[in-house]
Amino acid sequence: MGEKNINFSSLVYFLSICVSLFHLYAAEVGTIFGMFQRIIHWMFMSILIFMLHPSIKGKKGIPLNIIFIFVTSLAGIYLLLNFEDIAFRLGNPTGFEIFLGIATILLVLEATRRVVGWPIVIVAILSISYAYFGYLLPGILGHRGYSLTRITSHLFLTTEGIYGVPLGASASFIILFIAYLIWILDYKTILCFPDSLLQGHSIWHLANAIVLYTFFLFIKKNS
User: Fold this and answer.
1) 31, 93, 182, 207: which is deepest, by most CB within 10 A?
2) DSSP assignment, residue 174?
3) Do residues 117 and 146 both lie within one domain?
4) What is the Cα–Cα distance from 30 to 91, expressed in whole angstroms?
5) Number of domains present in the structure of the chain
6) What gap in Å lies between CA 38 and CA 163, rounded to an integer?
7) Tens-of-pLDDT digits for all 223 residues of the chain?
């Protein structure tokens, strides 16, 4: 049992190092296509979420998490390998892309539920439902409704859905601050002496303010 825990911890540690190195490379080189960076970012994050936040604790939840990791990895790799072809026929997705899109949307909702909880998941489900069932609503709230194909392709294959501005900010800026803060707070025995002016929690609040300001600049630039 102890050996399995060590192997699992080593795998998580290795993936975390890969995540950090990739984002540091992207920040330093700056030549990675934005959509590719977001896809790879979500692949790494989703894999870690399903590993570290199992819905069913114990051995019973392992097969389900493996399936989730496989599907999210398959969707990401497919987008990376076929993005140019997808871009040329935007608006005309294949059946396999619709399948991957629906699976990815469900996995995003499941990952969100595991980490944040039900409230934001319910808001997302209501928003998607409104896009589909809008024709049933009266007055100014109603609209003609959108097909499942259009909703799925918009959320999965464009930069206005899952791989939109918030994920772009997370992949470009927020992840770097988080990696830096993990390193800073790891030295809490040095930075949190009562007589020291440089406190770990103060750096945390300062970094949060910087992240919010950077996120504001990012949205302003891309709006």
Assistant:
1) 93
2) I
3) yes
4) 29
5) 2
6) 6
7) 555 566 878 888 888 888 888 888 887 776 688 899 999 999 999 999 999 988 777 677 789 999 999 999 999 999 999 998 998 887 789 999 999 999 999 999 999 999 999 999 999 999 999 999 999 999 898 999 999 999 999 999 998 999 998 898 888 877 877 776 666 555 544 445 555 444 555 555 566 666 666 666 666 666 5
